C-alpha cells in the first residue's frame, strides 16, 4: 500500500510543490532525516552508479554533528534542503517556535528548500516560511521507515505508481536502513532501465 497525498490536502496548500507535472522524462528522488555517516555515503554510492542526482532534506542537528558527511552530499553535486533542526512536528508548535527551529537549521544547511517533517505544518507557519523558502512536499512515499512494511513492499510503493515529475521520498536514516538498502538499488534500476527516466535534483 503506497501513500499519495489526497487531493483535498494539496488544494489546502496550493503554494507547496507536490510534484512537477510539466516534466515528461524526469523524476525527483529525495532523502529525509540525514546526513547519517553510515547510511548517507552508501546512498551516494548507489546514486553515483546510475548518474542520478537527488535532493537531501537534512536535519540541522545532523549537519552540525556530521559536517563531513554533509560536505560529501554537496561535493557529489546533489541539492540540499532544510528539514528543521530537530525534526519538529509543526502541528504541535507555536509559529515562533517552529520558525526558530527552521532558522536554526538554516545556519548549517543554507538552502531555500524546506520540507516539513511528517508534512505537518500549520498554514500560519507556512505563510511566514513561504516568504523565504520553497516548501517541497511529495507525491510518492516509499515508507522505507516502516517496521511492518516488507522490503519488497517498499519497492512496490514506488514503482507501481511511478510517473514523470514524481517527487519520491526515501530516508537516509538508521530507522529506514533495512528497507532502503534493499529498495533503493531496485528502484534506481527500474527508473533508469525500465522507464528510462532521468533522476534530477530539485533546483530553485
Automatic annotation (TrEMBL):
Gene3D superfamilies to which the protein is assigned, alphabetical: Glycoside hydrolase/deacetylase
A Pfam family recorded for this sequence: Polysacc_deac_1
Entry annotated with the keyword Hydrolase: yes
GO MF assignments: hydrolase activity, acting on carbon-nitrogen (but not peptide) bonds; metal ion binding
GO cellular component: membrane
Residue spans crossing the bilayer: none
Alphabetized UniProt keyword annotations: Hydrolase, Metal-binding
The name this protein goes by in its record: Peptidoglycan/xylan/chitin deacetylase (PgdA/CDA1 family)
